[in-house]
Amino acid sequence: MVMNKKRVNKIIDGKIPSKDDLIVDSIKDQLEEKMQASAMDINVFCKDGYVHMSGMVDVLSEKKTAESIAKDIEGVKKIENKITVAMDSNITDKHMEKEVINQLQNKKNLLGVGVKVEDGVANLLGSANTLKDAHSAMAVASEVRGIKDVVNNIKISNAEYDDAQINSHVTQSLSTTNLSYKDIAHSVNNGKLTLSGYVNSKEEMELAKEIAMGVEGVKKVINKLKIRK
């Protein structure tokens, strides 16, 4: 399907587009470019940098993707995501549960994860080796039709490592990347990792978080990184 060309902000009837108009247009452009036809039923409104999103999508992952796209637009202060996930009366909780389990079992790193679905809400249970694996399980569940929310109750296995060992593994993992890891400080308390210091861009910040989530024993990542100006 061919989507609209990028919006051109013109002066209409003597009115210059406001910052909010520009934000809305930028969000809509990115939604159409990255989500294609899935973005057709998404509505966007902005007032003083506060974005309200509404409309309907087929699966939860699309709702999350739309919000993530909007967050990356310059000028956006906060997002209220009221997009709803289309429900099909023919799909029961048991159907959804079975589909989530089937998808989880297709991934070797998620074999320890189970699910219970109630009223369209998937409650993920069991254990995973890393926080990254737990987030992967959440992503898998959010792509199943009918799931309207995902609750993460997955336990991260960290019996083998104490905080000092986990912290050392984080240092090793960060040092193998192109990140200026010496400018990134980190500490671990009961498996909860805090990142602080400076990175050069939002992409580097996301990379640092992703790497940290992939370290065994890390139960949670608290991001206090700042982007160098």
TrEMBL record:
InterPro entries: BON_dom (IPR007055), Lipoprotein_DolP (IPR051686). It comes from the Bacteria. Gene3D superfamilies: 3.30.1340.30. Residues 19-87, 92-158, 162-229 form the BON domain. PROSITE patterns: BON (PS50914). It holds the Pfam family BON. This is BON domain-containing protein. It comes from Crassaminicella thermophila.
